[in-house]
Amino acid sequence: MKKRINLCMCLLAIATCIITFVATLTISYQTALARMETETMRQASLVAAGLEHIDALDSDEQQAYMQAVGKSDRSRVTLIEPDGTVVYDSNYDPSQMENHLERPEVEEATHNGKGESSRTSATLGQQTYYVAKLLSNGQILRVSNTTDLVSDDLQRAIPPLVLIIVLVIAFSVWLANYLTNRLVKPINTLKLDNPLENDIYEEISPLLHKIHTQNEQLQKQMDKMRHQKVELEAITSNMSEGMVILDKEIRILSVNQSAIRLLGSVSQDFAGQSLISLSRDQVLNRRANEAVKGKKTEHRMENQNGRQLQIFCNPVQVDGNVRGCVLLIVDISEKYAAEKSRREFTANVSHELKTPLTSISGYAEMISNGMARPKDVAGFAEKIHTEAGRLLVLVDDIIKLSQLDEKAPMTLQFEKVNLKKLLETVSNQMKDYADKKQVKIHVQAEDVIASGVPRMLEEAAQNLCSNAVKYNREGGNVWLRVTKHGDMAYIEVEDDGIGIAQDDRAHIFERFYRADKSHSKTIEGTGLGLAIVKHIAELHGGSVGVQSYEGKGSIFTMSLPQSSN
Questions:
Q1: What are the Cα distances from residue 338, in Å, to 218, 342, 344?
Q2: pLDDT per position as a tens digit, 292-333
Q3: What is the C-alpha to C-alpha distance for residues 60 and 198, in angstroms, rounded to an integer?
Q4: Closest Cα partner for 301 from 289, 313, 290, 291?
Q5: Percent helix, strand, coil in the chain (nearest 5)?
Q6: 3 state DSSP class of 161
Q7: 429 contact partners, CB below 8 Å, separation of at least 6
Q8: Of these four, 16, 175, 181, 275, which has the most CB atoms within 10 Å of its CB?
Q9: In which band, very low, low, confident or very high, does the pLDDT at 521 lie, cut at 50, 70 and 90?
Q10: Residue 517 has what pLDDT?
Q11: DSSP structure string for 289-357
């Protein structure tokens, strides 16, 4: 704006100077021309008066007078006889001049006593102004001046005028620049944040009031947007799910930390970058491209940490047009593991149930078909009874696990449990079984009170003790201990039996897992005991672990919160 104002003012000043210069020359020319005509008329009157005064003199004296007059000024003086013959001319030889009777000024003077005209002289070839006067003796006096006299005067005046114009233009440009700065400076220093505080031109007050109103509206909108942004950031940053917002060119508009973590990227500012910079998974990028075309898509992938991710790609439409898409990333590892566990559990249950049922069905079929000898019927019935018992134990353990899966800690009725007495009870319950296996059980326990469900804790301890006896050697020992540390109580079950191989330790708490494959057929068990122990410990807010050395024995430790009262 400043340049435009400055340029306009400079052009206006220059145009004004040029117009003034042209107008001055035109007026000066017209004024000089009018002055020349007046001077020519006055000269003609003076010369005519002089000729009338010397009329009584002879022709030689009159001729001398005419020559003196002709030399005294730049004007051309001509004396013409009544018949049009030129008898004297101050600038040209009269004998060479044609008859002047038909000249307009001569003809007019002949009839009116005075005449004038302006034309190109036939003798001199220049634009000339003529004044003719009729003398008393019938002669005609003509005085003329060329316009070159005026032009010469103007030419002499032009250089000073041009210099003046140049100086005026230079001053005008400087003044225009100065005034422009003075004019624009207050506008450039406007306090647009507080427009009403500006005290400048009255003409822009309505504009300042409008800016003030718009500033208030913009501030409200910015505050609202800032509040919404804070809310969105607070929501997205605390989401366990990942969220990525993309535009229609698959450029990232927003991404939360959960998405960066789940996709295995390094935390940085991804705004404006392509989705490929966040995840190089080609299928995910194809799904995102499909989403920005208006199609809802899903993608399941595994990240670098082995976590299972479910990604939902939903297009974002505004006024019916797709403007981008939103990716919602959900960690379904637990769900995936649960589904896998259920599938494995179903397969294992089917397998475990099939074995005793096959035996029962086979023996029963032999008896019903009469294939069994009478003396073998009792043995077959005993085997059917044994397998049925094994089946009942297995079903009972499955039911217990199902019940434990459905229970939550807040639904349990916790009581104070003396762990020393609990282990003594378990030792008494397992004594006959241990004697049969020729294993001794030793209780080494402190009086420690834990908070829990007595029946569940007793079952967990019984399972640990049963395994310690079951997988022991003849003449072996089992130690039942209770210790405490801080707010936690610990039940330890140690044996000096066959131990657990290192590769099996990570899996022994899984359902139906049997660590000792070589003895799995001969040693009774469902493979669910340690899984039940793990569930009981977790329901009580504790955990279970194992230390084992193959061929030397194992130590199982279950932690439980102590009673606060």
A1: 52, 6, 10
A2: 888 899 988 888 888 888 899 999 888 888 889 999 988 888
A3: 93
A4: 313
A5: 55, 20, 25
A6: helix
A7: 462
A8: 275
A9: very low
A10: 46
A11: HHHTTT--EEEEEE-TTS-EEEEEEEEEEETTEEEEEEEEEEE-HHHHHHHHHHHHHHHHHHHHHHHHH
Task: Give the 3-state secondary structure of 123-148.
Answer: CCCCEEEEEEEECCCCCEEEEEEECH
Fold for 410-561, please state it: Heat Shock Protein 90 (3.30.565)
| CA 167/CA 178 separation, integer angstroms | 16
Name the region of 469 (left: φ>0; alpha: ψ -120 to 50; beta: rest).
alpha
Residue among 290, 239, 284, 233 at smallest CA distance from 263: 284
Query: For residue 447, what pLDDT is reported?
Result: 85
Q: How far apart are CA 270 and CA 258, in angstroms?
A: 14
Query: Over the stretch 94-148, which tens digit does the pLDDT of each residue have?
Result: 888 888 888 888 888 888 889 988 887 666 567 788 889 988 888 888 888 877 6
Residue type at 223 in one-letter notation: D
Which uninterrupted H or E stretch holds 67? helix 59-72
Question: What is the CATH code of the structural domain delimited by 335-404?
Answer: 1.10.287.130
Q: 406 φ, ψ to 5°? A: -85, -20
Q: Report d(CA 241, CA 476) in Å as an integer.
A: 52
Provide the pLDDT for residue 190.
67
Q: Alpha helix locations (H) across 238-306?
A: 257-262, 282-291
What mean pLDDT do residues 235-251 have? 84
Would you say 507 and 344 are in contact if contact means Cβ atoms under 8 Å apart?
no
* Cβ 330 vs Cβ 241: under 8 Å: yes
For 2-153, CATH number out of 3.40.630.30, 3.40.50.300, 3.40.50.720, 3.30.450.20 equals: 3.30.450.20
Answer for the pair 470, 495: CB distance below 8 angstroms, yes or no.
no
**Fold that domain 239-331 belongs to in CATH:** Beta-Lactamase (3.30.450)
**Nearest-angstrom CA–CA distance, 103 and 121:** 10
> Distance of CA 365 to CAs 359, 377, 489, Å?
10, 12, 53
**Which of the pair, 355 or 515, is modelled with greater confidence?**
355
Instruction: Supply 233's token pair.
Output: 């950031």
* Integer Cα distance of 19 and 527 in angstroms: 114
Q: Is residue 354 pLDDT above 50, yes or no?
A: yes
Which residues share a beta bridge with 252? 246
Which tokens sit at 402?
A: 């199902």
- pLDDT tens figures, 47-94: 888 877 776 666 677 677 777 776 666 778 888 888 888 888 888 888
Q: What is the CA radius of gyration of the chain?
A: 64
Q: Is residue 118 packed enough to be buried (19+ CB in 10 Å), middle (13-18) or exposed (0-12)?
A: middle
Whose CA is closest to 415, among 460, 449, 447, 445? 449
